[in-house]
UniProtKB/TrEMBL annotation:
Record's compositionally biased regions (Polar residues): 20-44
WD repeat residue intervals: 149-190, 250-292, 306-333, 345-379
Biased composition annotated in UniProt, kind: Low complexity: 69-84
Keyword Repeat: yes
Span list, region Disordered: 19-139
Keywords: Repeat, WD repeat
Pfam families given in the database record: WD40
Protein name (database record): Transducin/WD40 repeat-like superfamily protein
Domain of life, source organism: Eukaryota
């Protein structure tokens, strides 16, 4: 076999390297996931080896510990052996790369005793650090790797993942919505579509329909929009008349929306809340009318904004967070109206930013601007079960999310001016009601939205500030499925000659000189004003007698009149005569003419 290989190599060397079918070099999955691994230091500061390792899953951690403990106490001095070496130390010339061969006699065992998978950890007394790690890993939080879906220029305030986990929507304060597709995305992590639902209005919430064929977009305007799965607009709900005082008589919201959510079971019903102090349910098949108007219970007459809203998992209850700090819950039943079935007065001291029901509908989580997260038992609403403080919140879209098995719930924190912790993602045990773990997402950006997808087993968080924003996807290759694992392993396609396209030259009619607009004459006028000859002011006419070669107005304003007057051809004496004397002279002239005619008997006149 060795001779055949040498012959093949010798023949292959005679041909150019481009001859024959070439195999593309593929990067191993281990290398790819190492590039996206999060470098989080371990809690045990005494063990330096653990500090250098990133956070890994429980199975990978046990495997690494077994490799460390299986190393021989006397390693090879030349350092040429890589991996554990239970056998005899080889000579200096024999360099062993990779795991050593098994010791003799190992293959004589029965097939039933064969080991499958990573080796078991050594049996011995476990330290306190191992117990703490086991306590944390029993929740199996996917935190070992991370990718970032970029594209927004401001903080991401809305997040929605469809039920299959293939498409992600992110809305931002930069007025845009970006659509990401894990199945069609490569390692560049670029969005395939960008939308601007309403010009000049922030995107405040996004929600998929139960069938994931449409999604709801809520902005700062008074009208919500419905898009299909590919981002095409299907319709826009009507806006109400702002001059009608009774909100029940308006056809829609009259001020900006604050939140919106699709019905979890019915694909034709959605819920919206607004700053006008009302909640409304809509039928997506009729954009011109609403189904129900809900006015919250208020201590005093007026309009207090509804800051957030939520459905319970069965779609039978509606919860609303009111601007006065109260939480009100309505049950959908025949003949139901605006009177709430549950009213929690002064649940928070500030505006409520997020509400979340548990799967059994007995527990409600609330998040507020006052920096707290409260757990409520809906069977006893007089006081919360637990209050978690020291959770800064500066954004009206900060939400709460449950883990797929609801053992944990998580929320994000905002960055304060003099804080050094950055934006965190806090995990709490839902049964013990205690803090489990705090994960740093960004050192300088606040975490607003968060989600834990049940099918992908991946955590989504949206940190950002006034100048940047993105969606961080946390996953673990050993426990997560699809999603980020698909797009990270797909390398971008290389450009070929067929991809070259000559730039198209479009000649439109307005490019011809005949249709061009006249150029501006401003510069030409400025140039004429600077010319002393062209900008010379015309001389005014002389009112008196002429001088300096110029003709005055007394001798005529025109040259011809002046010449005729000087030659005696034009005489104007009427200005110098006396009118009375001229009339008398005319009378004498007429009398002399009459006497002359009488003498000649040419006319008969009465005496």
């Amino acid at each position: 076999m060795e001779d055949e290989a040498e012959i093949y190599d010798g023949i292959r060397a005679q041909f150019p390297l481009t001859f024959g079918k070439q195999q593309k070099s593929q990067t191993s999955l281990e290398t790819i996931h190492n590039a996206t691994r999060r470098s989080i230091a371990s809690k045990n500061s005494d063990n330096k080896t653990d500090e250098a390792l990133p956070s890994v899953s429980s199975s990978s951690k046990a495997w690494l510990d077994s490799l460390r403990n299986s190393k021989s106490p006397n390693p090879s001095p030349n350092g040429s052996v890589i991996g554990p070496s239970p056998g005899p130390v080889p000579d200096e010339d024999d360099v062993v790369v990779g795991p050593p061969p098994p010791p003799p006699g190992l293959g004589e065992d029965d097939d039933d005793d064969a080991m499958i998978g990573p080796p078991r950890p050594p049996v011995g007394p476990s330290s306190d650090s191992d117990e703490e790690e086991g306590e944390e890993n029993r929740y199996r939080i996917p935190l070992s790797n991370e990718i970032i879906l970029k594209g927004h220029t401001k903080i991401v305030s809305a997040l929605a993942i469809d039920h299959s986990g293939s498409r992600v929507l992110s809305g931002s304060y930069d007025y845009t919505v970006r659509m990401f597709d894990f199945q069609g995305m490569n390692s560049r992590l670029q969005s395939f579509r960008q939308l601007e639902p309403f010009e000049g209005h922030q995107v405040r919430n996004l929600s998929w329909s139960p069938t994931s064929d449409r999604f709801l977009c809520v902005t700062g305007s008074a009208q919500a929009k419905i898009y299909d799965r590919d981002g095409l607009t299907l319709g826009e709900f009507v806006k109400g008349d702002m001059y009608i005082r009774d909100l029940k008589n308006t056809k829609g919201h009259i001020t900006g929306l604050t939140c919106g959510e699709w019905h979890p079971k019915t694909k034709e019903t959605i819920l919206t809340s607004s700053e006008d102090g009302s909640l409304r349910t809509w039928d997506v098949n009729d954009f011109k009318s609403q189904k129900q108007v809900i006015k919250p219970k208020l201590a005093r007459p007026g309009r207090i904004p509804v800051t957030t809203c939520a459905w319970n998992p069965e779609g039978t209850c509606i919860a609303g967070g009111i601007g006065d700090g109260s939480i009100q819950i309505w049950t959908l039943k025949p003949g139901w109206g605006s009177r709430p079935d549950m009213y929690i007065e002064k649940s928070h001291s500030d505006d409520i930013t997020g509400l979340k029901f548990s799967s059994d509908g007995k527990t409600l989580l609330s998040r507020s601007f006052d920096g707290s997260l409260k757990v409520w038992d809906l069977r006893q609403i007089k006081a919360p079960l637990k209050v978690f403080d020291d959770l800064p919140n500066n954004y009206a879209q900060t939400n709460i999310a449950f883990s797929p098995d609801e053992q944990l719930f998580l929320t994000g924190t905002s960055v304060e001016k003099e804080s050094t912790t950055g934006g965190l993602l806090c995990f709490y045990d839902s049964s013990k009601l205690e803090l489990v773990q705090r994960v740093g997402i960004s050192p300088s950006c606040s975490v607003v939205q968060c989600a834990w997808h049940p099918r992908l087993n991946q955590i989504f968080a949206t940190p950002g500030d006034k100048s940047q924003g993105g969606t961080h996807v946390l996953y673990d290759p050993t426990v997560s499925e699809r999603g980020a694992l698909v797009c990270v392993a797909r390398a971008p396609r290389k450009k070929s000659v067929d991809d070259f396209e000559a730039p198209l030259v479009i000649h439109n009619p307005h490019a011809l000189p005949l249709f061009r607009d006249q150029p501006s004459r401003k510069r030409q006028r400025e140039k004429i004003l600077k010319d002393p000859i062209k900008s010379h002011k015309p001389e005014l006419p002389i009112t008196g007698p002429g001088h300096g070669g110029r003709v005055g107005t007394t001798k005529g304003s025109l040259l011809t009149q002046y010449l005729l007057k000087q030659g005696g051809m034009i005489k104007e004496t009427w200005m110098e005569e006396d009118p009375r004397e001229a009339i008398l002279n005319l009378n004498l002239f007429l009398q002399s003419q009459i006497l002359r005619m009488k003498r000649n008997d040419l006319i008969w006149m009465d005496p």
